[in-house]
Amino acid sequence: MKIDFVSDVSCPWCLIGLKSLEVALERLGDAVQVELHIQPFELNPQMPPEGQSISEHLARKYGATPEQSERTWEAIRARGEALGFTFRMDRRSRIYNTFDAHRLLHWAGTEGRQSALKHALFRAYFTEGANPGAHDVLLRAAAEAGLDSERARQVLASGAYADEVRERERFYQEHGIHAVPAVIVDDRHLIQGGQPVEVFEQALRQIAATG
């Protein structure tokens, strides 16, 4: 079973979706053999390197009031806690550009360390409040994920994998993916959103049973 997990590192529901998916796969055990691929999606591809205030961004993009945002963040925090992840909303005040993070994730896929790097980047942003587009943060996350730091530095400095990332982003947009997380199973089954563990488990069991 091939699973493409389309997501952005600045998307809290993507973190929840990935953690839920991973728990579901643990529950399935040997019932399915899975190849998991992390695929790129930028929620804010035009975001400048210095980023933008979260409150300003949410108000402008979604029309969210501070009260609405607070309720949403509390729901996200609770979901994360239930999955063993700590969201520190007080440390995260800005939205950043994530293109370089996606380039590094593409490279990590060639090294078999994609999921490890994805989780390291999620921790950097959502728990530590660090900028996931800053090269020092990316290099630290690469080291945490067990990747070669010098090679990671070369990837970031060279602009490597930019074309590959843009091609993948275009591919998913052209195939109707406009919100993330999007979980695509065997190139034909779509599970949308940061679903609970039980939803992923049931869907994957049904897909596995029907071939």
CATH class assignment: Alpha Beta
Using the coordinates shown, work out and report the CATH topology.
Answer: Glutaredoxin
Q: What is the number of domains? A: 1
Strand composition percent: 5-15%
What structural category characterises the helix and strand content?
Answer: alpha+beta
Radius of gyration: 17 Å
Q: Number of helical segments? A: 9
Record the SSE blueprint:
Layout: E1 2-7, H1 12-28, E2 35-40, E3 52-53, H2 54-62, H3 66-82, E4 94-95, H4 99-110, H5 114-127, H6 135-144, H7 149-158, H8 162-174, E5 182-185, E6 189-192, H9 197-210
Parallel strand pairs: 1-2
Antiparallel strand pairs: 1-5, 3-4, 5-6
Helix pairs in contact: 1-9, 4-5, 5-6, 6-7
Please provide a written account of the structure.
The structure is a single chain. The chain has helices at 12-28, 54-62, 66-82, 99-110, 114-127, 135-144, 149-158, 162-174, 197-210; strands at 2-7, 35-40, 52-53, 94-95, 182-185, 189-192. Helix 1 links the parallel strand 1 and strand 2 (35-40). The longest helix is centred in the N-terminal third of the chain and has 17 residues, at 12-28. It is an alpha+beta fold and 211 residues long. The chain is built from nine helices and six strands, in the order βαββααβαααααββα. The chain has a single domain (2-210), classed as Glutaredoxin. The strands form two sheets. It has a four-stranded mixed sheet, with helices on both faces. The chain has a two-stranded antiparallel ribbon with strand order 3-4. Helix content is 55%, strand content 11%.
